[in-house]
Design brief:
Length: 95
């Protein structure tokens, strides 16, 4: 009876348990959990570093898209990396 399909959203990595902590939980597609600590560049240590690096390298590329509900077909309208950086900077100043 019922749905027999099981969806796996994560898996525990054996041997990574520490006192007071569970094992590391990773996406099932991860083959080598040790490679999760690799960085795309030596100047990237945080998510903010990665974001700012993209702003420097591809400032005019589309980054975040939203659908325009007022236009037939609901096409995406994109903001560039630079535009999103400006919005987030202004928001952080205002807070």
């Amino acid at each position: 009876m019922g749905n027999q399909n099981t969806i796996t959203y994560g898996r525990f990595v054996e041997g990574t348990e520490k006192p007071g902590h569970t094992a590391e939980l990773v996406n099932p597609a991860v083959v080598d959990h040790n490679k999760l600590m690799e960085r795309p560049s030596d100047d990237v240590n945080t998510l903010l570093d990665a974001f700012k690096r993209s702003v420097r390298n591809v400032p005019n590329n589309p980054y975040l898209g939203t659908r325009n509900e007022k236009v037939e077909g609901r096409p995406y309208e994109w903001k560039t990396w630079r535009e999103v950086d400006e919005i987030t900077t202004n928001l952080s100043i205002a807070i």
